[in-house]
Request: fold
Amino acid sequence: MKIEILGTGCAKCIALQKIVEEAVSKVGGFHQVVKVDDIMEIMKYNVISTPGLVIDGEVKSTGKALSLGEVTALLEEAMQK
Amino acid sequence: MWKESVDYLTVDLLGLSGRVNDTINFFIYDSAKIMFLLLTIIFVVSYLRTHFNTEYVRAHLQGKSQLYGNVLAALFGIITPFCSCSAIPLFLGFIQARIPLGVTFSFLISSPMNNEVAIALLFGLFGWKVTIIYIGFGLLVAILGGFFIGKLNMEKYILLDVTPMEGELDEVKIKLTFKQRVAESWDYTYDILKKVWLYVLIGVGVGAFIHGYVPAEFIATYAGGDKWYGVPLAVLMGIPMYSNAAGVMPLVEVLTEKGMLLGTALSFMMAITALSLPEAMILKKIIHIRLIGLFFGIVGLGIISVGYLFNFIL
Reply:
């Protein structure tokens, strides 16, 4: 899967990135984690409150640093598809 | 009920009296009341917010006519969160959706001014009447301010070239259960409380000290009293205080109790929340300093008028 974190460098964006990395190692498998920090790129996803979490091109969350449990759940849900 | 319990605690249990009792009683009563209100109001607002995130607001402001757009944007500003770190994506995102500049500014003025911490503090410190006046005139400043900025054709001062999108926005759809919404609201409330509790306690503490020990004449002489320059001075002083709104507002309550005029106090608090230096510094990356100057000028004038109006009426 391709997991993108949309954020311009705010504290919450950095927090979310750490959590995503942790969640990825927890669920296992091979996934690509990309940090998108260019504002023009972020806007292409129609996200205006950062951080945003995108899994395989689909926006899953905006404007909050999710918990480890929440990210893990989102990843597992996406993996089942 | 609360007043009696606090009285019982300080007078009967601790055996305090006179000025010491006055000060400590005031501190316990005010901080308990404010903490309770902060908890309740932030929770309610964050719950509402799980239904109206910023992306939702943008989709609903798209394609609205000028004045109606300004009104709607100002109203949305009450429930949506605002942190200066998200000002840039928000601003550009609105322009991208072809939302007029004036409507965007109505939102940018209203959102920090009507933030939940300020509203909870106002409600706790000044009661519901002043809170309604604050929100009402705050909305008016946001609507008219945005409307005038929209009339001045300032689009050329946006420094980044945003390509307007074609057609309608797809709403970003994220499904949440009731339980998730409550959990999220609670997380948010906890986060905010963690950030402000110390400021609130310090503010109330200093306020309690002034309440008990500083004579009213002192404040009336040095906080301007009814001198004509009181309002603009209060607005200027409010600009650098944004991050400390939680600590400053309890002080303003005590100052009004000691003779500061309510209009001056209102202007001061509006300036604290609506005119923030960090936000200006961040916006400077994407809009020309002239537009920022105009934004501060118009909002400043609006806030000053509110102050004079209230000093005149009351």
Chain B touches chain A at residues 53-55, 58, 81, 83, 85-86, 88-90, 92-94, 96, 162, 169-170, 172, 174, 184, 187-188 (CB under 8 Å). Residues 2-160+177-313 of chain B form one domain.
